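Reviewer 2 asked us to include a model.

Predict the structure of this chain.
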Amino acid sequence: MRFRLPRIFALVLLTTPAHAASTDSHRAGEIVWETGTTKTAEGAPVQYELGTLFVPENRAVSNSRLIGVGFARVKAARPTGAPPIFILPGGPARSYLNAFTDEDAAAKKQLAGVFPFTAAGDVVVMDQRGYSKRGEELLVARPHQPLDRPRTLAADASEMVKLARDAMAAHPGKDLAGYTLVQCAEDVNDLRQALGYAQITLSGQSFGSQWSFAVMKLHPEIVARAWLSGVEPLDNAFDMPSHVFAVLQRIAWDADRALELAPWLPRGGVMQALRAVHARLASGPIRVKVKDAAGKPRTVVLGLEDFRAALLRPPEAWPAFVLSLYHRHYDDWAREVLQERQGDDSPVRILAPLIDSSLGVSAERGHLLRTDSGTDLLGMTDFDALIASADAWPTPEVDATLRLPAPNPTPVLFFHGDWDTSTPIDNTLGLLPYFPNGRALLVHRGVHHTRAPVFEQHPEILPKVIAFLKTGDTRDLPVNVSLPVPTFQKPPFPPVP
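Predicted model (structure tokens):
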């Protein structure tokens, strides 16, 4: 899912993995290669190449130090004459390269999203600068957060400012100003040139789609076509609350008709339960006593912003979460927040705030976000802290014209689900007029990662997508499909008579 910073915190660490290529003896644009063999889910062997591309950390600075950006390439099953497909991962701070070297089921599942498209051309899977094991990873230690007060917008903003200051102080000699969307787009162009391709096809999911839009804006001549899903326009780094709320309403329509949830539903359904819990927490925080993993009694204070931040769960799960709170069963939520505040030792990746604070939003969209009707229920947790702390981050603000949409003749195939709470379907609908050669496949009940479910339920679409990647022709593709209603999770307690 699109990365959203929770309550964060303290020291930033920059690590260079032991196996990452050193930059000392290399030049910009150079590639260090290695090869390997993996297997498809059916057991067929597949050869691949792993590479490290060396690029300037900050192209705006002369004599900038070099950093490594990892990538993988799988050659086309047979020559097709079509441009290579560059797969740009989401996040920011996501990598798909472990899929080539790991042997677990998750790796095989990821590779299943790569191999079929070698029927259209070479496939290149690219890392992001600042989050690449073949280069460097920007990570944040996540210290414990207090349990005796609820989450607030003011505290989130203050902590984000402190994080930015700690990040710069912790990295003398590292140019954190170089970790922007513009630099990521230039990395794509540099890799294209280093591999000897005249044009490329972009495949981007979530932030990968935003990354793709930046490439199309800065280097339109190199993009033959694009396939984008979980679409995130350049001026939509933060979601409009009313658009997200509309997604919850669509999910609630099916949840209210699900027999498995009927015994717990109040009159008015899931959305009425949501409003009731919201009103309850708006009147003041609650204190919940639970035991931690060691069995020690703990008291967790939960407030309205905690509730708003916890709402965006998988569609099959969030109705049961809301219904549990409606019936005053808070223990599972309190244990979850306890783990987040004091039990989660995983590092946070600072590439996301570096990129997002640089990209920001236009003044008009910032106004719309803060005055949107959806803030009444969903608040401003999604964007307030990062907008408030943007000046504290070292990455420079992008040129305002980059964010704004403009007519583009590139053939683009959009996939977007109407159950996507991370990047609402309104994103695609608002962009379509700017792409006269674009086509949208709208997926009813599709979530953020909607490609695999569409191919599973509608296998006839996969060869049509491959044909598009070869030719750019979308005429054979449908404009909408539906996915089945999921089985909704039940609240973990007996229904109230």
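Residues 1-19 have pLDDT under 50 and may be disordered. The chain has two domains: 1-243+345-484, 244-343. We have added this to the supplementary material.
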